[in-house]
Amino acid sequence: MAAQEIKVPDIGDFDSVEVIEVLVSEGDTVEEEQALITLESDKATLEVPTTIAGKLTELKVKEGDTVSEGDVIAMVEADAGEDSASDDDSDDDADEGEESDDGSESDDEADESGDDESAAADDAPEEDDAEDDAAGGETIEVKVPDIGDFDSVEVIEVLVSEGDEVEAEQALITLESDKATLEVPSESAGKITELKVKEGDTVSEGDVIAMLESAGSKKSSGGDKKQSADQKKSGGDDRAQKADKKSDNKADESKDKKPKKDDKSSSEKQPKKKSVKSGSGEEGDSSKLKSVDEDRFNKAHASPSVRKYARHLGADLGRIQGSGRKGRILEDDVQAYVKKALEQSQGGASAGAPAGAGGVPAQPDIDFSQFGEVEIVELARIRKISAKAVHKNWLLIPHVTQFDTADITEMEAFRKANKEKAAKDGVKLTPLAFMLKAAAAALREFPDLNSSLTADSASLVHKKYCNIAIAVDTPGGLMMPVLKDVDQKGIYQLARELDEISGRARDGKLKGDEMKGACFSISSLGGVGGTAFTPIVNSPEVGILGVSKHSMQPVWNGTEFEPRLILPLSFSYDHRVIDGAKAARITGFISEKLSDLRTLLL
Ligand code: CAO
Fold first, then answer.
1. Digit-coded pLDDT (tens) for 115-155
2. Once rounded to an integer, what is the mean pLDDT over residues 404-428?
3. Rounded CA gap, 443 and 578, in Å?
4. pLDDT surpassing 90 at residue 438
5. Contact 132, 138 (CB under 8 A)
6. Which residues fall within 8 angstroms of residue 568, CB to CB, at 6 or more apart?
7. Which of 188-202, 347-361, 467-481 has the highest mean pLDDT?
């Protein structure tokens, strides 16, 4: 199917308008009415959509170009059987695809708009402005400017309230037809004393949308100016020629239109009530989130569609840094902003946090290169995952760490005595196997230690099984494989399983379910060093035992100092479940089990 031209529709009294954003690329598949480019004049921002769905084969404009009505902006190869655009339009438009060459898609409907009036309006000589200028304090009508071949266009957003102070050119309302979305700005700085329209109303050129108590002189162009120019019927410049170029019947229509317009302005027009269309439902209710600063939002530099998109997502445009030309906020900027906000709330900051905990400030984005040479190294995948987990647990759980020691002189003597023999059986007998056994005994002795809080934090789930996770230092980051049914296994078997599963963790060969279902965790830094640390509890567990490097220390036995092998213990717990006294009893219990292996057998 041959590509069809997509032209700039009748854009009212704008001529040579700048393309500030090209929203598509060649090769893109576009949907009917999808915006292709954004135009911005000193009067309004508006998007030009495609009239047909299909593949965009050629872009005829780029950012910075200027265009006028009828200019071809793109070529679109219609989808097979594409005629829905015309189906949706009036019967007159039924064959708009074929007629696109002469811009009839616009013209057919423009017949109703009588926009040659506005062409004349735009021709108003500069000195007319002086007459129209409102002196400070004077109340003026803000009217819908010449909006081209749009008539009875829906107000999809009212951006200001009565009593608001507005700046010249600040957008007051957003209009949306099936052809484009555009904003109507205030032509003068001042105070909005009355709003004449609300969301869902429909308006046409010349309709009064607000009363403005002017703060000073009016801007060079706008509805008033056009209106006055309409009345003077001045003409003769490009714009008028353009209007002349348009079909004759438009002029006829304009005659019909004029009284209609006058009627409206003279008779306190009651805007037609019309429900906000479903596609813009969110905008219809304004979605004015408390976190959005409306004033800042409205003043932000963004196209109507981006504004609408941000509203839809509840993103405060006023907080978003625009990456477009002249700091214009693009849809990508809104997306990036929302993504970051979600990451902060879901990934770490407040996800699962108790009510009222709130978020945490974002990681500051600092340019460290200003202080010296730097290199950016991306975190390994596992480190990224565990970083989120520890952050969440750190925020979720009120941690306390109880420190204690265990005299493992006998335990180590026993282990060393059996180490070689165990090695012959293929077992690497390390202190950790004994600690697993002592922890299992503690889980049995203290049911709350082997529990989890229910989601409503009102009950404890006591577990009758005994699975313990072990922190394993791997090249990719920290992993927590789980040893199952530790209470039912002997020290040899535990040592064998520990060696096997920690080896697979280091090789990155753990399966997902081998890291699930733990009741408690042990983090041993004994083979590395240190005297104490504060491990982070892995929610929904309620405790974790940290083990540091043992050392020979002089211990007073009542008559003399005796060299004993002392193991430092650091027990972190969830203070919502375990209180300090119980924590001290738990560490004391574990210490006792490790100090006298015989008690482990009981
Ligand atoms: N004090 C002194 N020496 C200790 C010790 C302790 N508490 N615990 C273990 N050792 C010794 C072992 O006895 C072994 O020496 P021998 O071969 O002479 O017996 C040596 O240290 C190395 O042991 P290992 O590390 O191979 O085995 P392990 O069972 O002690 O630990 C594992 C296994 C997987 C826990 C360990 O390799 C590991 O990855 N530890 C790091 C865990 C970690 O990063 N924790 C921090 C997480 S953040 O909270």
1. 333 333 333 333 334 334 445 578 888 888 877 767 788 88
2. 96
3. 13
4. yes
5. no
6. 403, 404, 405, 531, 532, 547, 548, 549, 550
7. 467-481
Which atom belonging to ligand 1 lies closest to the Cα atom of 474? 39
Closest CA to 212 of 265, 163, 147: 163
What average pLDDT does the structure give for the chain?
Answer: 77
- pLDDT, average across residues 380-391: 90
Give distance in angstroms: CA of 432 to centre of ligand 1.
Answer: 7
Query: Which tokens is 581 given?
Result: 């006294």
For the entire predicted model, the pTM comes to: 0.51
Residues having CB closer than 6 A to ligand 1 are 430-432, 470-473, 478, 498, 502, 523-527, 535, 547, 549-550, 567
Task: Please identify which residue in the block is written with the tokens 């460290």.
Answer: 368
Distances in Å between the Cα of 32 and the Cα atoms of 9, 82, 103, 180 are: 15, 9, 17, 12
Helix axes 331-342, 304-313, angle to 10 degrees: 10
**% residues pLDDT > 70 (the chain):** 73
From the CA of 505, give the closest atom in ligand 1. Answer: 34
Residue nearest to ligand 1 atom 22, measured at CA: 527
CA–CA gap between residue 567 and residue 547 (Å, rounded): 7
Range ranked top by mean pLDDT from 8-17, 287-296, 341-350: 8-17
DSSP code at position 523: E
Ligand 1: which of 432, 547, 591 to mutate, most ligand atoms within 8 Å of CB? 432
Write the residue with the smallest CA distance to atom 10 of ligand 1. 527
Share of the chain above pLDDT 90, in %: 42
Map residue 49 onto helix, strand or coil.
strand
Distance 595 CA to ligand 1 centre (A): 19
Question: Coil, strand or helix: which one is 510?
Answer: coil
Min mean pLDDT across 24-38, 225-239, 428-442, 573-587 is at 225-239
Is 575 designated active site? yes
Q: Which amino acid is at 582?
A: K
Rounded to the nearest 10 degrees, what angle do helices 431-445 and 409-424 cross at? Answer: 120
Among 73, 75, 37, smallest CA distance to 56 is for 75
Rounded to 5 degrees, φ, ψ at 378 are: -70, 140
Most confident of 213-222, 285-294, 452-461, 593-602: 452-461
Q: H-helix or E-strand containing 62? A: none
